[in-house]
Amino acid sequence: MNVVMFYLLSAIILIFSLLSITTRKILRAAVYLLFVLVATSGFYFLLNYEFMAAVQLTLYAGGIVVLIIFSILLTSHISHKFKHPALLNLLMGAGVAVIGAGVALYIIFNEKFTANGQPELPVDMTAIGTQLLSTEKNGYVLPFELISVLLLAAIIAAIVIAKKGKQEEKES
Amino acid sequence: MIQGIPIYHFLVVSTLMFFIGVCGFIIRRNLITMLMAVELILNSVNINFVVFNRYLYPDQLQGHFFSLFIVGIAAAEAAVAIALIINIYRRINNIEVENVNEMKF
Predict the structure, then answer these.
(1) Architecture of domain A1-81 in CATH?
(2) What is the C-alpha separation between A7 and B60, in angstroms, rounded?
(3) Mind listing the pLDDT tens digit for each residue in A59-87?
(4) Residue B1: closest C-alpha in chain A
């Protein structure tokens, strides 16, 4: 069952990520990206990381894709079709991707991955919350604080950049 | 870990997804689609972190937390990038990368 689900999800991920970078309609690209992200959260469910899967669904599939779709609707015509990419670009992109994937896969398959053999830690909300806010060993309070500052800075920056200046408001 | 699925299969999927994202970043000429390619790249790295955590170090949660933080950073990055894109669109009515050369000198 799990094995069948895994191969189904990987097929969805690969096919839709290819479609999302090759389709010529921008809104379709966003929807294909949504499928990829949902299938990725399926991976996390398979690996028993339920919290991570929920975060993936709400933040990525819910938040970022909605943000991208809104900005598409604000900035482009839905019926607009992209031109085909220039041949040189296409060759360069495909070449870089093939060479890079070849090197990475070669390295991966030559590597012996050995588990450390410890018993599995059950990943429930208690363990996640305790480790996220602990200053002891295996505590992640420093990156947690850092990311809160980063998010605040990003919110302020997004507002400052996207708001209209005074002159533009008078003109429009 | 999951019975019957070796770690290599997960890594193959995430590697291919990463390089599909790189390819999309190179061949696309529209800022929003390039942003989507970056999301693909970040997502594949997330899969790698989580899979290494589950298969190799199942008694710790390091990969789990790092992919959580990456998701947060991706959200912040998307918000700022889209604010920039909307600003560019207001100025030059277009978001193709060829036309965004105002800051060149």
Answers:
(1) Up-down Bundle (1.20)
(2) 27
(3) 988 889 999 999 999 887 777 777 777 88
(4) A47
